[in-house]
Structure formats: C-alpha cells, structure tokens
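Hi V.,

You were right to ask for the full record rather than a summary. Here it is.
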Amino acid sequence: MTRALLITNPAAARTEEAEVKAILETLRRGGWRVELRATGGPGDARRFAAEAAAAGHDVVAVFGGDGTTMQAAAALVGTGTVLGVLPGGTGNLLAGNLRIPMHPARAAQVLLTGAARPLDLGRMERLDGTHYFAVACGAGHDARVMAATTTLQKHRWRFAAYFVTIFRLMPELRSIPHLITVDGVEYEAQAALVLVANCGEMIPPFLRLRRGIRPDDGLLDVVVLRADTLPETVRAIWEIIREDTGGRIGYAQGRTITVQSSTPEPVQMDGDAHGMTPFTAEVVPRAVHVIAPRSTS
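Predicted structure:
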C-alpha cells in the first residue's frame, strides 16, 4: 500500500476545503494510506516533507501553488520519496508543464495512474540558505510583477491578477545593463528581465519560451528580454511565439548561470521573491522524481 503525505496550503488561491476532501477520497479509494497536514506559515511545507521522507513515506503530494510545491520538493532532493503535484495556486506552471489536470480530483487520479519521472531542479544559494526552483527563476520586471501581486488579487482574479499588475507597473519597465555568465562564458545584455528556465512553457500550453527546453535534460536555459515600452514588450512576446530572432530576445543554455545587473534588481524563484541580484543558479540533474501522466513526453 502506498503511504503518502498530503500537504495543503489554505492560503493558496484554489485550495477549498471541498477540494481537499475530494483529493483525499480519490486517493483513499485508490488504495493509498494518506495523512493530511496544512501549512500555517513559511517553511512548513519543507519541514513537513522532510519529516515524511525521514518516516519512509512513498509520496509527498502538495495541494498548493508552485512556491509551496517547491518548498516540499527541496526537502525531497536526494531521498527516495516521490513528489506529487496537485495544482491549487495561481500560476500552477509546473503542473501545466507536466500536463497535470487543473481540476484537483482529476490531478489526484493522475497520482494513482501516472508514472514517476525524473525532474531536474535549479539550485540557488541565498543569504537564508539553499533554495530550489522547478520552472524558472528570474531577475527584473517579472520578479517585480510577482512581488506586487497581492494574495487578495490572486484569490479574486486567479492568473489574470498577474496581467493586471503587469499593466499597472508598465511605467516602471526599463532595460538596464546585465552581465550574464553561462558556464564561464560572459555575455553583456540590455534587459528588462532575465529568466533562467528549467521548464519551457510560461503559460502552458500557450506560451513556450523556446522549442526543446525540457525539465529533464540536465541544462538550464537563459532567456533575455529587452523592452522599455508596452509596444516593445508586445513585439518581444511575438518574437518568442514565432521563435524569431528580431533582436529583443536572446537565448543561451548551460549548467551554471550567474546574473549581475548594473543596479540591484528583484529576484524570483517559481513566483516567490528571493532578494536582489546578483545570483547564481545551477542545475541539479534528476534531483527528484515527480508523478506525471504516462502520456507526458
């Protein structure tokens, strides 16, 4: 019998009590023995997952957003405990990239019928310790937008809350000099944002950063966007969609990425704020295993 811990984040945008009950019923009908714990503050998910791994749980499933999921995943690195993803947050980008259904009960069914696949993680050392990301980290305007989008807005408008903040902060958009080092090779760039991506889709399955970005290839992908106005931003996004090389988007790929900026810029990891530039991110190949639909390539 599979022994699992279900971690829920009551503060996440889509974690209603009825949905938690449906997940538990689905997993228990499938023959799993499931314990339930709810987070109450920062660090709880990581602590709960570490305790579950130490106690020999087979699976730690997280019903919350990407930030809560990554807290748990960080505790599972180097253990044999498998990660389960149940989308309950605002973006749910990891779930989207893995093609896990957004409906919680259907996502729980994937835990029963899916397969564990290796997942690379990005790792970053900050003043408060070691942190990991599964989808992307970034510096610049994207981090500014995520930090300025409130919990109330996320509950009210879900993913659209980010677009509201993007337009509100558009006057602050600016490109500044960056020095980006990829596996020892230095690149200079004017950028409004620099993304270091482990997954390829930022709005799954509609907006893909670049063909071939995979979360299991042992590499991180750098995407640099140069824009100073709304029209320039639209043209840059159009370049991404068309996989064009019109000059507003730059790409690189490597295992260790350092990002420095001429003035300190905010940094985010999977949607959560993590200080200011500079930062160094390195890939941890096959850091954890995650349950995904068997049809996921």
